[in-house]
Write a structure and sequence with these properties.
Shape: elongated
Organism: Cryobacterium suzukii
Oligomer: single chain
Keywords: DNA-binding, Lyase
GO molecular function, one term: DNA binding
Radius of gyration: 25 Å
Number of domains: 3
Strand order of the largest sheet: 8-7-6-9-10
Enzyme class: lyase
Strand content: 15-25%
CATH class of the largest domain: Alpha Beta
Structural class: alpha/beta
Protein name: Uroporphyrinogen-III synthase
Distance between the termini: 36 Å
Helix content: 40-55%
């Protein structure tokens, strides 16, 4: 299934045959755009399926699942959690809020995340008040944001009475305000980034709104350089895709780029050559607001995200051109000529990408030097070009056009 996103750009689905059929000689597509098992269907378990591709992972929780899935398919993964889940060193505040909810016996309980529900009840159980918490909700109407929150609730032995229409906190609050009378006692389990706007909507209509936060998001500290290296890799187009599983993680990446004074460069990269992949519409929202068109699975699940990334990279981000030396295929950081595959270093890759996209047309020395960016000059470009030729080891593939530049021998 495919559909148009808020900007009218195509967003691929994750079902069988979801992505559009690839153009075998296409230029870069420029589409920047209960706990489940994340294994995907058999055709997507090829060990070298993602060989050559470089993927950034920004998530903290369950990041190992994503990383393992991509690495098992041959990708090189850069992990830089832009936010981390923080649990209180002592769960005193969480237990205090839990006891307040137990005493209040709310009319409605809103559950927003499966992980949050599970952790909440585990902490209560460890403190000896788990059964009291379950009993307090015996007559409570429980509404859930999505299937994972439903799975968390049912794992406690409780049952929910309904789910939000679009798996967002806003739509969950919409449901409460539309279907239930005002003046009730409402409990809400919030996730790592509390949405105060939605809490205020509830407070405006109901007698008491009691909040419990089993975990929260915190920004990485300055001693963790991984986020800054991720920003640099995106800006220099040294990644093919970056995955996002929460909106706060997107905002944190943008904030890091602003602090490095490269926000516009980051946005430009994600709008063009670096694919942004988001797990669902809430995560996509800040990307879309920044003018980025992310790919997004039709099912907002980790397994669907993995499958979509695999499909998209294979079908849209392999660049091919026929030459006198055979078919040249550029997939991520690997170039294949005939049956031979070689890994290219960053500067050689930048030059090769420019030559492949020119499809035999001459690329000037100035344009190649400009493509290298940074403090590169003609000499640095010539050194990189020489190394490219040595690495390819295919005489005549990269031809010199005297006084004009360089081209592939098509």
């Amino acid at each position: 299934m495919t559909g148009a996103n808020e900007q009218g750009r195509v967003v691929s689905g994750a079902g069988a045959g979801a992505s559009a059929a690839p153009d075998s000689h296409a230029h870069h597509a420029h589409l920047p755009g209960a706990t489940e098992s994340i294994d995907v269907a058999a055709p997507f378990l090829q060990p070298n399926q993602l060989e050559g591709f470089r993927i950034g992972v920004t998530s903290d929780r369950r990041s190992s699942d994503l990383i393992d899935a991509f690495e098992r398919r041959g990708a090189r993964v850069v992990h830089a959690p832009t936010l981390r889940i923080a649990h209180s060193q002592q769960d005193g505040p969480l237990l205090e809020d839990t006891r307040t909810l137990i005493a209040a016996r709310p009319d409605i309980l809103l559950a927003t995340t499966g992980y949050g529900v599970r952790r909440w009840f585990e902490v209560a159980e460890a403190d000896g008040i788990g059964s009291e918490l379950t009993d307090a909700f015996a007559d409570t109407t429980i509404l859930v944001r999505g299937p994972k929150a439903r799975g968390g609730i049912r794992a406690t032995g409780l049952n929910d009475s309904g789910m939000s229409d679009s798996e967002t906190t806003a739509s969950l609050v919409d449901k409460v305000l539309a279907e239930y009378p005002p003046g009730l006692i409402v409990g809400i389990q919030v996730h790592g980034a509390t949405d105060e706007v939605q809490l205020d909507r509830l407070r405006a209509a109901h007698e008491r709104v009691l909040v419990v936060a089993p975990y929260r998001w915190i920004a990485v500290d300055d001693s963790d350089e991984r986020v800054y290296k991720l920003v640099e890799a995106i800006c220099s187009r040294q990644l093919d895709c970056v995955t996002f599983t929460s909106a706060p993680a997107v905002h944190a990446l943008f904030t890091a780029a602003e602090g490095m004074d490269v926000y516009s460069e980051l946005i430009a990269a994600l709008q063009t050559e670096v694919c942004a992949a988001a797990v669902g519409p809430v995560t996509s929202a800040p990307l879309v607001a920044a003018g980025i068109a992310p790919i997004q699975p039709t099912r907002f699940r980790m397994g669907a995200l993995i499958r979509l990334v695999c499909e998209h990279l294979e079908q849209n981000m392999i660049e091919r051109v026929e030459t006198q030396n055979g078919l040249v295929e550029l997939r991520g950081s690997i170039v294949q000529v005939g049956e031979e595959r070689v890994q290219l270093p960053p500067t050689a890759l930048t030059i090769m990408r420019a030559l492949v996209r020119a499809r035999g047309a001459v690329v000037s020395r100035d344009d190649l030097t400009l493509a290298l960016a940074g403090d590169s000059d003609d000499h640095a470009m010539e050194v990189s070009l020489s190394r490219l030729r040595q690495t390819l080891a295919v005489p005549g593939l990269v031809a010199t056009v005297v006084k004009r530049g360089y081209r592939l021998n098509v």
